[in-house]
Design a protein that fits this description.
Blueprint (H helix, E strand, L loop, with lengths): L2 H5 L3 H23 L7 H22 L6
């Protein structure tokens, strides 16, 4: 997901996406530990998406977001 797509989501949608991506990260880590993960780059991608979502949630809380 691109940052602008994340910024367009509401607070509840952001929380839902965050939960979905955390679940995906858990599953990817599990697959990686059992040597079943084929696309290891997806781990880094999901971590970055989670960080973006958390950043945007914090920006909305403090009112310092970009692209208001």
């Amino acid at each position: 997901m691109k940052p602008q797509e994340i910024r367009d989501l509401s607070g509840s949608e952001l929380q839902e996406k965050l939960q979905d991506f955390r679940q995906e990260l858990f599953n990817l880590r599990f697959q990686h530990s059992t040597a079943q993960l084929e696309n290891t780059q997806r781990l880094a991608q999901v971590k970055k998406i989670i960080a973006r979502i958390l950043t945007i949630i914090n920006e909305k809380k403090t009112g310092t977001g970009h692209g208001k």
